[in-house]
């Protein structure tokens, strides 16, 4: 996903431009820290105090020049309008968040308002068109059968959450003024790997395969996750 995001940033903004980035639901700050190390100014929003603590600890270990370019806000991603002015950011990330939001449209509209004209909105969502894949490949035939006609599922944390269908998000992005520009699949072949599985020695080849599949039909359409990139008109 990081490679996909970098591809969109490089294709949209001048090389060397220091971007204003908002990461909503930043978790432990993986993408936020990666982008701030690349020279951008990043604001991360996260409501889980544990994740905020992990992100702050990681940031504390960075050089001063990196630390001064990153701001962490403990709060709900649905309250961006409380903290920031419209059009304040060139890039807005919302990765792995929508599955926990029962009504995502207001959140998405708020994120689009944060974008400057021409800004990039990056979403990572559970693929509602592929919910039968994981149970089917695992031999859970009853689970696979039920996955065809629903957007609800139980994740690996044991939580009942929801997925999004590409056609629905395409319509939503058009409606909020950040129409879909590009989309990718994420975890096409590796979704059934066990949690904590050992990283293979040929991990670079694995990543090359996933990156290729994530941009190639029909593979990307059955990925566990979808990476959607909208552009503010």
Automatic annotation (TrEMBL):
Protein name: Methyltransferase domain-containing protein
Keywords, sorted A to Z: Methyltransferase, Transferase
GO biological process, one term: methylation
UniProt feature coiled coil, ranges: none
Domain Methyltransferase type: start-end pairs: 22-122
GO terms for MF: methyltransferase activity
Organism: Streptomyces venetus
């Amino acid at each position: 996903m990081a490679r996909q995001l970098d591809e969109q940033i490089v294709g949209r903004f001048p090389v060397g431009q220091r971007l204003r980035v908002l990461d909503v639901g930043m978790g432990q700050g993986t993408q936020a820290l990666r982008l701030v190390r690349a020279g951008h100014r990043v604001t991360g929003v996260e409501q889980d105090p544990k994740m905020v603590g992990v992100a702050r600890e990681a940031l504390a270990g960075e050089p001063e020049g990196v630390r001064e370019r990153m701001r962490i806000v403990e709060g709900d991603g649905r309250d961006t309008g409380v903290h920031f002015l419209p059009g304040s950011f060139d890039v807005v990330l919302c990765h792995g968040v929508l599955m926990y939001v029962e009504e995502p449209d207001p959140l998405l509209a708020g994120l689009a308002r944060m974008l400057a004209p021409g800004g990039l909105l990056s979403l990572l969502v559970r693929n509602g068109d592929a919910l039968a894949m994981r149970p089917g490949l695992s031999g859970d035939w009853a689970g696979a059968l039920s996955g065809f006609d629903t957007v609800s599922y139980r994740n690996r944390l044991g939580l009942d959450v929801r997925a999004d269908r590409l056609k629905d998000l395409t319509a939503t992005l058009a409606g909020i003024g950040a129409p879909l520009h590009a989309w990718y699949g994420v975890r096409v072949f590796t979704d059934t790997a066990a949690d904590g599985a050992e990283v293979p020695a040929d991990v670079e080849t694995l990543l090359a395969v996933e990156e290729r599949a994530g941009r190639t039909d029909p593979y990307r359409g059955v990925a566990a996750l979808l990476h959607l990139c909208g552009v503010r008109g």
